[in-house]
Amino acid sequence: MKIKEILREYMLLPAPSGYEAEMAYRMKDDLALYCDATRLDRAGNCIGKINGRRAGLPVVMVFGHMDQLGFIVRRIDDKGFIQVDRLGGIPEKVLPGLSVILRGENGVWYSGVFGTKSHHAMSQEEKYNVERVTELYIDIGARSKEEVEGLSIHVGCPVIYKPSFSELHGDRITGTAVDNRGACACLVGIAKLLNQKRPDCDVYIVGTVWEEFNLRGAMLAARTIKPDIAISLDVTLAGDTHDLSAHFEDTLGGGPCVQLYSFHGRGTLNGTLPHAPLFKSVKETAARLCCPLQRFAALGILTDTAYIQLEGEGVACLEMGFPARYTHTPNEVCDVNDIAALSVLVAEVVLDIDENFQLNRL
Ligand SMILES: [Zn+2]
Fold first, then answer.
1. Which tens digits make up the pLDDT trace of 10-19?
2. I want to staple 358 with a disulfide (CB 3.0 to 4.6 A). Which of 85, 189, 277, 322 is the partner?
3. What 3-state DSSP class applies to 147?
4. How far, in Å, from the CA of 356 to the mean position of ligand 1?
5. pLDDT tens string 260-278
Protein backbone atom coordinates (compact mmCIF):
# COMPACT_ATOMS: atom_id res chain seq x y z
CA MET A 1 0.00 0.00 0.00
CA LYS A 2 1.24 3.49 -0.81
CA ILE A 3 2.09 5.94 1.97
CA LYS A 4 -0.83 8.21 1.03
CA GLU A 5 -3.29 5.32 1.43
CA ILE A 6 -1.83 4.26 4.77
CA LEU A 7 -1.88 7.88 5.91
CA ARG A 8 -5.54 8.25 4.94
CA GLU A 9 -6.50 5.19 6.96
CA TYR A 10 -4.42 6.25 9.96
CA MET A 11 -5.82 9.81 9.95
CA LEU A 12 -9.37 8.46 10.06
CA LEU A 13 -8.71 6.31 13.15
CA PRO A 14 -9.62 7.97 16.46
CA ALA A 15 -6.75 7.80 18.97
CA PRO A 16 -6.56 10.57 21.58
CA SER A 17 -3.88 10.21 24.26
CA GLY A 18 -4.80 7.34 26.57
CA TYR A 19 -7.17 5.83 23.98
CA GLU A 20 -4.71 4.72 21.30
CA ALA A 21 -5.98 1.12 21.04
CA GLU A 22 -7.45 1.26 17.52
CA MET A 23 -4.37 2.93 16.12
CA ALA A 24 -1.96 0.71 18.07
CA TYR A 25 -3.54 -2.57 16.97
CA ARG A 26 -3.81 -1.36 13.36
CA MET A 27 -0.18 -0.32 13.33
CA LYS A 28 0.83 -3.62 14.91
CA ASP A 29 -0.90 -5.48 12.07
CA ASP A 30 0.85 -3.30 9.48
CA LEU A 31 4.27 -3.67 11.12
CA ALA A 32 3.77 -7.43 11.41
CA LEU A 33 4.08 -7.61 7.60
CA TYR A 34 7.71 -6.48 7.82
CA CYS A 35 8.95 -7.06 11.37
CA ASP A 36 10.28 -10.25 12.94
CA ALA A 37 8.22 -9.64 16.10
CA THR A 38 5.51 -7.19 17.17
CA ARG A 39 3.88 -6.47 20.49
CA LEU A 40 2.16 -3.81 22.57
CA ASP A 41 3.74 -2.92 25.91
CA ARG A 42 1.82 -2.19 29.09
CA ALA A 43 1.30 1.48 28.25
CA GLY A 44 0.13 0.66 24.72
CA ASN A 45 3.27 1.49 22.77
CA CYS A 46 3.32 -0.55 19.55
CA ILE A 47 6.74 -2.15 19.13
CA GLY A 48 8.01 -3.93 16.03
CA LYS A 49 11.47 -5.53 15.99
CA ILE A 50 13.62 -6.17 12.95
CA ASN A 51 16.46 -8.51 13.83
CA GLY A 52 19.92 -7.33 12.89
CA ARG A 53 22.27 -9.58 10.94
CA ARG A 54 25.03 -9.23 13.51
CA ALA A 55 25.18 -9.32 17.30
CA GLY A 56 26.85 -6.82 19.61
CA LEU A 57 25.96 -3.66 17.67
CA PRO A 58 24.11 -0.60 18.99
CA VAL A 59 20.36 -1.05 19.37
CA VAL A 60 18.29 1.44 17.38
CA MET A 61 14.79 2.70 18.11
CA VAL A 62 12.90 4.70 15.49
CA PHE A 63 9.66 6.08 16.85
CA GLY A 64 6.75 8.47 16.41
CA HIS A 65 3.72 9.14 18.55
CA MET A 66 0.41 7.58 17.57
CA ASP A 67 -1.85 9.71 19.75
CA GLN A 68 -3.64 12.93 18.87
CA LEU A 69 -4.84 15.86 20.92
CA GLY A 70 -8.43 16.28 22.00
CA PHE A 71 -10.59 17.11 24.99
CA ILE A 72 -11.98 15.45 28.11
CA VAL A 73 -15.59 15.83 29.24
CA ARG A 74 -15.65 17.97 32.39
CA ARG A 75 -19.36 18.55 33.04
CA ILE A 76 -22.70 17.73 31.52
CA ASP A 77 -25.43 20.26 32.26
CA ASP A 78 -29.13 19.62 32.85
CA LYS A 79 -30.01 20.51 29.24
CA GLY A 80 -27.55 17.94 27.88
CA PHE A 81 -24.84 20.37 26.82
CA ILE A 82 -21.34 19.01 27.40
CA GLN A 83 -18.43 21.05 28.72
CA VAL A 84 -14.84 19.94 28.15
CA ASP A 85 -11.24 20.78 28.94
CA ARG A 86 -8.23 20.45 26.69
CA LEU A 87 -6.19 17.26 26.30
CA GLY A 88 -3.09 18.65 24.60
CA GLY A 89 -2.42 21.93 22.85
CA ILE A 90 -5.78 22.83 21.32
CA PRO A 91 -6.02 26.23 19.58
CA GLU A 92 -9.22 27.63 21.02
CA LYS A 93 -9.96 29.98 18.15
CA VAL A 94 -10.81 27.14 15.77
CA LEU A 95 -13.45 25.60 18.00
CA PRO A 96 -16.85 27.35 17.66
CA GLY A 97 -19.04 25.51 15.14
CA LEU A 98 -16.56 22.64 14.81
CA SER A 99 -17.59 18.98 14.40
CA VAL A 100 -16.25 16.55 17.00
CA ILE A 101 -16.75 12.95 18.06
CA LEU A 102 -17.12 11.80 21.67
CA ARG A 103 -16.28 8.35 22.95
CA GLY A 104 -18.79 6.83 25.34
CA GLU A 105 -17.64 4.42 28.01
CA ASN A 106 -19.24 1.70 25.88
CA GLY A 107 -16.54 2.37 23.27
CA VAL A 108 -18.97 3.90 20.75
CA TRP A 109 -18.04 7.23 19.12
CA TYR A 110 -20.87 9.78 18.89
CA SER A 111 -21.09 12.95 16.78
CA GLY A 112 -21.27 16.41 18.28
CA VAL A 113 -20.60 20.05 17.50
CA PHE A 114 -19.09 22.92 19.45
CA GLY A 115 -22.00 25.31 19.89
CA THR A 116 -21.58 29.03 19.51
CA LYS A 117 -23.92 31.98 19.83
CA SER A 118 -25.75 32.57 16.54
CA HIS A 119 -23.73 34.97 14.43
CA HIS A 120 -26.79 37.18 13.82
CA ALA A 121 -27.06 37.79 17.55
CA MET A 122 -23.39 38.59 18.23
CA SER A 123 -22.19 42.07 19.13
CA GLN A 124 -19.24 43.51 17.20
CA GLU A 125 -17.04 42.78 20.19
CA GLU A 126 -18.18 39.15 20.43
CA LYS A 127 -17.44 38.55 16.75
CA TYR A 128 -13.74 39.25 17.31
CA ASN A 129 -13.37 37.65 20.70
CA VAL A 130 -11.84 34.18 21.18
CA GLU A 131 -13.84 32.18 23.70
CA ARG A 132 -11.93 29.89 26.03
CA VAL A 133 -12.64 26.19 25.71
CA THR A 134 -14.10 26.23 29.21
CA GLU A 135 -16.75 28.73 28.07
CA LEU A 136 -17.83 26.57 25.14
CA TYR A 137 -20.14 23.57 25.11
CA ILE A 138 -20.68 20.56 22.87
CA ASP A 139 -24.14 19.80 21.51
CA ILE A 140 -24.81 16.15 20.68
CA GLY A 141 -28.52 16.69 20.09
CA ALA A 142 -29.51 15.46 23.54
CA ARG A 143 -32.26 17.22 25.49
CA SER A 144 -31.06 16.37 28.98
CA LYS A 145 -28.16 15.10 31.07
CA GLU A 146 -30.01 11.79 31.36
CA GLU A 147 -30.06 11.40 27.58
CA VAL A 148 -26.31 12.05 27.38
CA GLU A 149 -25.54 9.60 30.17
CA GLY A 150 -27.88 7.10 28.54
CA LEU A 151 -25.31 6.97 25.70
CA SER A 152 -22.63 6.21 28.31
CA ILE A 153 -21.04 9.63 27.85
CA HIS A 154 -19.82 10.76 31.27
CA VAL A 155 -17.30 13.06 32.90
CA GLY A 156 -13.84 11.85 31.82
CA CYS A 157 -14.80 10.67 28.32
CA PRO A 158 -12.46 11.74 25.48
CA VAL A 159 -13.44 13.96 22.55
CA ILE A 160 -11.53 14.64 19.31
CA TYR A 161 -11.96 16.70 16.16
CA LYS A 162 -14.11 14.71 13.73
CA PRO A 163 -11.53 12.65 11.80
CA SER A 164 -11.08 13.78 8.21
CA PHE A 165 -8.80 13.32 5.22
CA SER A 166 -8.88 15.17 1.89
CA GLU A 167 -6.52 15.24 -1.03
CA LEU A 168 -5.36 18.66 -2.12
CA HIS A 169 -3.61 19.62 -5.34
CA GLY A 170 -0.54 17.57 -6.19
CA ASP A 171 0.56 15.26 -3.41
CA ARG A 172 -0.59 17.48 -0.59
CA ILE A 173 -3.25 16.35 1.81
CA THR A 174 -5.23 17.88 4.64
CA GLY A 175 -7.16 16.64 7.64
CA THR A 176 -6.93 15.68 11.27
CA ALA A 177 -3.85 14.30 13.05
CA VAL A 178 -1.33 14.73 10.23
CA ASP A 179 0.61 15.25 13.48
CA ASN A 180 1.54 12.48 13.90
CA ARG A 181 -0.06 9.86 11.66
CA GLY A 182 2.29 11.10 8.95
CA ALA A 183 5.13 9.73 11.05
CA CYS A 184 3.22 6.50 11.75
CA ALA A 185 2.82 5.94 7.99
CA CYS A 186 6.51 6.76 7.63
CA LEU A 187 7.43 4.15 10.26
CA VAL A 188 5.63 1.45 8.27
CA GLY A 189 7.55 2.58 5.19
CA ILE A 190 10.83 2.32 7.12
CA ALA A 191 9.94 -1.19 8.34
CA LYS A 192 9.23 -2.23 4.76
CA LEU A 193 12.59 -0.94 3.52
CA LEU A 194 14.52 -2.51 6.41
CA ASN A 195 12.75 -5.80 5.82
CA GLN A 196 14.06 -5.77 2.24
CA LYS A 197 17.60 -4.57 2.94
CA ARG A 198 18.15 -6.07 6.43
CA PRO A 199 20.12 -3.89 8.88
CA ASP A 200 23.26 -5.09 10.70
CA CYS A 201 21.90 -3.89 14.07
CA ASP A 202 18.64 -4.69 15.83
CA VAL A 203 16.03 -2.05 15.00
CA TYR A 204 12.84 -1.34 16.89
CA ILE A 205 10.07 0.53 15.08
CA VAL A 206 7.79 2.07 17.69
CA GLY A 207 4.46 3.90 17.69
CA THR A 208 4.27 5.66 21.05
CA VAL A 209 1.44 6.80 23.35
CA TRP A 210 0.75 9.96 25.40
CA GLU A 211 2.93 12.44 23.49
CA GLU A 212 0.22 15.07 23.30
CA PHE A 213 -0.59 14.48 26.97
CA ASN A 214 2.67 14.29 28.93
CA LEU A 215 5.39 13.38 26.40
CA ARG A 216 6.44 10.37 28.44
CA GLY A 217 4.83 7.29 26.85
CA ALA A 218 7.90 6.75 24.67
CA MET A 219 10.03 6.64 27.80
CA LEU A 220 8.33 3.42 28.86
CA ALA A 221 9.05 1.82 25.49
CA ALA A 222 12.71 2.85 25.82
CA ARG A 223 12.96 1.24 29.24
CA THR A 224 12.28 -2.20 27.81
CA ILE A 225 14.01 -1.72 24.45
CA LYS A 226 17.10 -0.08 26.00
CA PRO A 227 18.17 1.64 22.76
CA ASP A 228 21.63 3.11 22.24
CA ILE A 229 20.36 5.29 19.39
CA ALA A 230 16.89 6.78 18.92
CA ILE A 231 15.44 8.76 16.03
CA SER A 232 12.07 10.39 16.53
CA LEU A 233 9.71 11.34 13.73
CA ASP A 234 7.24 14.18 14.12
CA VAL A 235 6.01 17.28 12.33
CA THR A 236 8.02 20.47 12.04
CA LEU A 237 6.37 23.84 11.52
CA ALA A 238 6.45 24.71 7.83
CA GLY A 239 7.82 28.20 7.25
CA ASP A 240 6.29 28.70 3.82
CA THR A 241 3.06 30.47 4.72
CA HIS A 242 2.96 34.27 4.85
CA ASP A 243 2.67 34.28 8.63
CA LEU A 244 5.68 32.03 9.33
CA SER A 245 8.04 32.81 6.45
CA ALA A 246 9.97 35.23 8.63
CA HIS A 247 10.46 32.54 11.29
CA PHE A 248 11.38 29.20 9.69
CA GLU A 249 13.08 27.98 6.53
CA ASP A 250 11.44 24.60 5.91
CA THR A 251 8.87 24.27 3.15
CA LEU A 252 6.25 21.72 2.16
CA GLY A 253 7.67 19.47 -0.54
CA GLY A 254 11.20 20.59 0.34
CA GLY A 255 12.13 17.18 1.75
CA PRO A 256 12.68 15.62 5.19
CA CYS A 257 13.60 17.82 8.14
CA VAL A 258 16.07 17.51 10.94
CA GLN A 259 15.22 19.39 14.10
CA LEU A 260 18.34 20.98 15.55
CA TYR A 261 16.89 22.57 18.64
CA SER A 262 13.78 22.13 20.71
CA PHE A 263 13.26 23.57 24.14
CA HIS A 264 10.40 24.29 26.49
CA GLY A 265 10.83 26.20 29.74
CA ARG A 266 7.86 27.22 31.91
CA GLY A 267 8.19 24.39 34.43
CA THR A 268 8.93 21.67 31.87
CA LEU A 269 12.55 22.67 31.35
CA ASN A 270 13.52 20.12 28.76
CA GLY A 271 14.50 19.95 25.13
CA THR A 272 16.73 18.15 22.69
CA LEU A 273 20.15 19.07 21.37
CA PRO A 274 21.00 16.79 18.45
CA HIS A 275 23.57 14.04 18.90
CA ALA A 276 26.40 15.30 16.67
CA PRO A 277 27.64 11.98 15.20
CA LEU A 278 24.06 10.95 14.42
CA PHE A 279 23.36 14.28 12.74
CA LYS A 280 26.59 13.93 10.76
CA SER A 281 25.48 10.50 9.59
CA VAL A 282 22.10 11.90 8.50
CA LYS A 283 23.79 14.71 6.55
CA GLU A 284 26.16 12.29 4.81
CA THR A 285 23.39 9.84 3.97
CA ALA A 286 21.17 12.60 2.58
CA ALA A 287 24.05 13.79 0.41
CA ARG A 288 24.71 10.26 -0.87
CA LEU A 289 21.01 9.82 -1.73
CA CYS A 290 20.82 13.32 -3.29
CA CYS A 291 17.97 13.89 -0.84
CA PRO A 292 17.40 17.50 0.21
CA LEU A 293 17.61 17.89 3.99
CA GLN A 294 15.79 20.78 5.62
CA ARG A 295 16.69 22.28 8.97
CA PHE A 296 14.33 23.35 11.70
CA ALA A 297 14.99 24.88 15.11
CA ALA A 298 12.41 26.33 17.48
CA LEU A 299 11.87 27.47 21.00
CA GLY A 300 8.64 26.52 22.77
CA ILE A 301 8.48 23.04 21.25
CA LEU A 302 9.07 19.81 23.11
CA THR A 303 8.75 16.22 21.90
CA ASP A 304 9.03 12.84 23.62
CA THR A 305 12.67 12.64 22.45
CA ALA A 306 13.63 14.97 25.27
CA TYR A 307 12.73 12.21 27.73
CA ILE A 308 14.15 9.29 25.75
CA GLN A 309 17.61 10.89 25.68
CA LEU A 310 17.79 10.66 29.48
CA GLU A 311 17.17 6.90 29.69
CA GLY A 312 19.85 4.36 30.61
CA GLU A 313 23.37 5.64 30.10
CA GLY A 314 21.95 8.30 27.80
CA VAL A 315 20.55 7.63 24.33
CA ALA A 316 22.01 9.18 21.15
CA CYS A 317 18.96 11.06 19.90
CA LEU A 318 17.97 13.01 16.83
CA GLU A 319 14.60 14.56 16.02
CA MET A 320 13.59 14.20 12.41
CA GLY A 321 10.33 14.86 10.64
CA PHE A 322 8.38 16.47 7.85
CA PRO A 323 6.95 19.98 7.55
CA ALA A 324 3.27 20.58 8.27
CA ARG A 325 1.11 23.67 8.13
CA TYR A 326 -1.63 24.76 10.55
CA THR A 327 -0.44 22.35 13.26
CA HIS A 328 -2.90 21.29 15.95
CA THR A 329 -5.88 22.63 13.97
CA PRO A 330 -8.48 20.22 12.51
CA ASN A 331 -6.98 20.69 9.05
CA GLU A 332 -3.24 20.29 9.07
CA VAL A 333 -1.56 20.16 5.65
CA CYS A 334 1.49 18.22 4.50
CA ASP A 335 3.11 16.87 1.34
CA VAL A 336 3.29 13.08 1.24
CA ASN A 337 6.50 13.21 -0.82
CA ASP A 338 8.28 14.57 2.26
CA ILE A 339 7.07 11.58 4.27
CA ALA A 340 8.11 9.08 1.59
CA ALA A 341 11.57 10.68 1.34
CA LEU A 342 11.86 10.65 5.14
CA SER A 343 11.24 6.88 5.11
CA VAL A 344 14.07 6.29 2.65
CA LEU A 345 16.48 8.62 4.43
CA VAL A 346 15.91 7.18 7.92
CA ALA A 347 16.07 3.59 6.65
CA GLU A 348 19.41 4.30 4.93
CA VAL A 349 20.80 5.97 8.06
CA VAL A 350 19.87 2.91 10.09
CA LEU A 351 21.39 0.55 7.51
CA ASP A 352 24.73 2.36 7.91
CA ILE A 353 24.96 1.84 11.67
CA ASP A 354 27.65 -0.61 12.75
CA GLU A 355 30.38 -0.96 15.39
CA ASN A 356 32.07 2.19 14.09
CA PHE A 357 29.19 4.43 15.13
CA GLN A 358 30.36 6.87 17.80
CA LEU A 359 27.85 6.72 20.67
CA ASN A 360 29.65 9.31 22.79
CA ARG A 361 28.61 12.86 22.06
CA LEU A 362 32.10 14.28 22.31
ZN1 LIG B 1 3.45 15.54 17.20
1. 999 999 999 9
2. 277
3. helix
4. 32
5. 988 888 778 889 899 999 9
pLDDT above 80 (res 338):
yes
- Domains of the chain (ranges plus CATH)? 3-68+176-351 (3.40.630.10), 70-161 (2.40.30.40)
The per-residue pLDDT for 266 is 77
Per DSSP, the three-state class of 11 is helix
What's the rounded Cα separation, in Å, for the pair 37 and 192?
Answer: 14
With both helix axes pointing from N to C terminus, report the angle between 3-11 and 178-197 in degrees, rounded to the nearest 10: 140
CA-based R_g, the chain, Å: 21
Q: 128: which residues sit within 8 A by CB, 6+ positions away?
A: none
Pairwise CA distance, residues 28 & 39, whole Å: 7
| Selection from 322, 302, 69, 68 nearest residue 173 by Cα | 322
Q: Which of 20, 211, 319, 332 is catalytic?
A: 211
Measured in angstroms, how far is the CA atom of residue 214 from the centroid of ligand 1?
12
**Beta-carbon contacts of residue 214 (< 8 Å; ≥ 6 apart):** 17
Q: Residue 231 Cα, ligand 1 centroid: separation in angstroms?
A: 14
Per the annotation, the verdict on 211 as an active-site residue is: yes
